[in-house]
Amino acid sequence: KIISGTVSIVGKTYYLTLSLISVKTGKIENVAEDTCRCEVDELLGSTKRLAKKLLGEQVEQPVATTPKPVPVAESKAKADAIAKAEAKQHELKGTTAAIAPPAGKAKIVAYDGRFEKLASGIVRDKQSGLDWYAGPDKNTVYDDAKGWVANLMVDGGGWRMPTLEELKGLYRKGAGSRNMTPLLETTGWLVWSGETAGPGGVRALDFDNGLELLDRRDNSIYKRGFAVRSRR
Prior knowledge:
The protein is α+β, with helices and mostly antiparallel strands. The protein is built from four helices and twelve strands, in the order βββααββββααβββββ. The strands form three sheets. The chain has a five-stranded antiparallel β-sheet with strand order 4-5-6-7-12, with no helix packed on it. Strands 10-9-8-11 form a four-stranded mixed β-sheet. The longest helix is centred in the middle third of the chain and has 14 residues, at about 75-90. About 30% of the residues are buried.
């Protein structure tokens, strides 16, 4: 067996997972999750609870403690507001003759130097030649994300789930509040790929640190679905 673990943080809340995987079959045999709104040195208790959960043992939920006050700018609510405000800041107002598309072409409403956003909501990557479309900005399980992509008919359709490599191409440390272009308006941290592993595992990219994540398809916490297609 091998054990794969991840830890992410949003505001002052740590989210930890452990997956028990069979080396012989590649099947995910068990998954344990735990959250800890605490200081970093208190994570030891959370990891101990995770190990017990992974082994099927009963664990007691910790008594909630009040974390030390943090600046408002570091709160999740503020981060979400910043993410949406950043996209608004990129809206092009007034005359945009410098980047106005030729007649008959899709109207560009925002541009950040590499990505351009069309009036339809499509975000085009001028570097890779990929079109992106952000899904509903809410916690989304994998099957719902996949179903949404399959039924997406914006601008003629042709959309699919992204690969991990394509998602890694979106990751830019320090870009916006989600390490990606703010033109893709989202308050999520993890984006599903179309790459599955075993009967119940799916790979996603954590935009907090740019690392791959193997998770259960029914885990929706901070997960979002994006659609992609190639113009080349």
